[in-house]
Every structure is written in structure tokens, then in C-alpha cells.
Design a protein that fits this description.
Length: about 210
């Protein structure tokens, strides 16, 4: 199935306008309140693209929350999960634990997560990550809109949107709206993530047997 295309050219601007309409009141956790009725919601629809039908590699460079830089070109050879978010987004809070869980499970398996924050300052984004124990990096895209422009052909109209890139940087899958851990894991596997290491049985592990007292 081919990803659905969009003709909306001002994609980054539309998303930023949505965030502004949502408002940013104070929340009990020190983060902005969740958005209201002007929010563009996704329904969790999953679209996967067969390898033969994937387009050109996605490329962008962005400044991370901690002042570093991420260049997608440097991540070629890895499966990359991109997730759009901002702190006042209720569904982003809803899926944060699932994203972090899968990030930890796929560590060392040729997978890299990159968040794309579409609205916040570094301080607000950092506060969100701290509140939800998020450890993978995110780029701040509100100023340049470079990341969202790079994704315009994938039509990430909802926030959150999760996009999985294969090892060549091509779009392998998209989830419009919050995604569950099982869905994310399946998409990463299908895109080429390395298999999970097999658990070792202590009873048959030669190293464990050698270390055991006689």
C-alpha cells in the first residue's frame, strides 16, 4: 500500500498554528496543559510501504534539546524511528512510555530513535523528557521547520506521527496518532531491526559452568 500523499504545502506552519491554537496553560507537572478541540488528532492508522515502492531517503539536520546536532545522513545503515511531538500534546504523553520502552528494548539492535519537537523551547522539551524518563534524542524544529519540510511527502498531519525509516533512510512505515509498544516493535522488525539476542540458559552456558564451584 502506498502512503497517502498530501497537497498541503505549508505543513510545518500548519502544525505550529495548531499548537498555538491549542494553548499552553500550566499543568500540574510543570508542563503545558494538553491541547483542546483545535488539535488535529490521529486515529492510530498504520501504513507500511513495500521496499520496492519506497521513495527517496529522508534527510534533515536539526539541533537537539541539549544543543547537539543530528544529521539523518549519519544514521544510514540503521533503522530510524522518527516521532513528532510537543509537550502540550495529550496523545504524546499517552505514548511516551511505550516509545521509551521500545527504545530500551531495541538498544544495540541497529535502531535509532529521533524525536521531532514541533513547537517547544528547549526548556519545555527537556522538562517533558524528564517527566516521562525519555532518554532518546529529539531535535527542536519550531525555528527552522527543516525536519517537517523533509517529511512533507509523508503527510504527518497529526501529532504524534511516528515514521520508521529503513537502513537506506526510506520511509518503511507510518503511524498517524499514538502508537502502542507492540505496534512499534513490529514495524521496527519489519523495517530490518536486528533480532533480539537469545537469552542464555545458565545451566548450559559454558562460562557460567566454568565459574561455578566444584
Amino acid at each position: 500500500m502506498r502512503p497517502r500523499r498530501t497537497r498541503r504545502p505549508a505543513l510545518a506552519g500548519a502544525l505550529l498554528a495548531t499548537a498555538v491554537l491549542a494553548g499552553c496553560g500550566g499543568g500540574g507537572d510543570g508542563l503545558p496543559d494538553a491541547q483542546g478541540q483545535n488539535y488535529i488528532a490521529g486515529d492510530g492508522t498504520v501504513v507500511q510501504t513495500p521496499p520496492a515502492e519506497r521513495g527517496e531517503p529522508i534527510t534533515f539536520t536539526g539541533e537537539t534539546i541539549d544543543g547537539g546536532t543530528i544529521d539523518l545522513a549519519d544514521l544510514r545503515g540503521q533503522v530510524v524511528l522518527l516521532n513528532t511531538w510537543f509537550a502540550a500534546c495529550g496523545p504524546c504523553r499517552e505514548e511516551a512510555d511505550d516509545l521509551q520502552q521500545v527504545w530500551e528494548e531495541y538498544s544495540g539492535r541497529g535502531v535509532q530513535f529521533v524525536g521531532i519537537n514541533t513547537y517547544d523551547t528547549a526548556a519545555i522539551a527537556e522538562s517533558f523528557n524528564r517527566s516521562h524518563s525519555v532518554t532518546y534524542p529529539s531535535v527542536l524544529d519550531a525555528g527552522s521547520g527543516e525536519a517537517m519540510l523533509a517529511l512533507r511527502g509523508v503527510a504527518p498531519q497529526a501529532t504524534p506521527t511516528t515514521i520508521v525509516l529503513d537502513a537506506e533512510g526510506r520511509v518503511a512505515a507510518r503511524v498517524s496518532g499514538p502508537a502502542r509498544a507492540s505496534t512499534l516493535a513490529g514495524l521496527l522488525d519489519d523495517a530490518g531491526a536486528a533480532p533480539a539476542p537469545e537469552a542464555t540458559d545458565p545451566a548450559t552456558d559454558p562460562a557460567t559452568a566454568a565459574a561455578a564451584p566444584a
